[in-house]
Fold this sequence. Notes:
Pfam families: AP_endonuc_2 (PF01261). This protein is α/β, with parallel strands linked by helices.
Amino acid sequence: MNKIGFNVLAWSAGISDKLLPVTERLKKIGYDGVEFAIDTQSPTVYKRFGEQLQNQGLESTCVFVVGPEENPVSESATVRAKATDRLRQAIDCAHALNATLICGPFHSAFATFTRRAPEEHEYRRSAEVLHKAGEHAAKANIMLLPEALNRFECYLCNTMEQLVALVKQVDHPNVKAMFDTHHANMEEKKFKTAIQTVSPVLKHVHISENDRGTPGDGHILFDEVFATLAAVQYKGWLTIEAFTRSDPDFANAINVWREYSKPWDMAENGLRFIKQMGEKHGL
């Protein structure tokens, strides 16, 4: 069975000791690891928290985004340099946490649009930044896994076809790709085709319901998802990314205006669902 994780953004977007009872309970109910958003805190904070996670017997992964002031596809060389520096800082934090990967839409600035379709020179700029970050990630033994988002949050990479093309252009062994069922539900024609497309570079999967609530409660075709993941022999994490309004600043930033499910319902029922799907499809 693949390792199963839970993204603690359901409680908080920032690492602090307040999350330790949450991570302890996640371990107790059966999770192998937890996923954290990387913010602007120093690597020292992540190192101390990582040591406490190890004491709890949990592994960790990270998610990360960049804003317009550090946009890898910016026309400004200064802004692109800031993007490289910010990615290196995120890698240092993830390394301090003992995380193995950083996923997220850091190929371009989140929810930042040009009011035109993506252009080839933007992919080249992104690839150059990601290649430089990949060199730093290799030193820390961390994988960078950019993510395709839906059209309302991103314009550079909406589909697995676009994402795979970018990863190939980056051309670095520490830069691969991830797959998120929530975004794919909006942008892909078929889950099967999308997963097959990304499978050669697929290293991380977010199990997310169509409404960002408890996996299995909505209309995502999870039988197709799990069957295809098994068919391509996917061996990475299956991490639940579900959102709430527990952290209002974060919720407002990503347009979460209501509660979809209670956090512990998401965690407990979601874990049970993933295990059932894994056993059913031999994943």
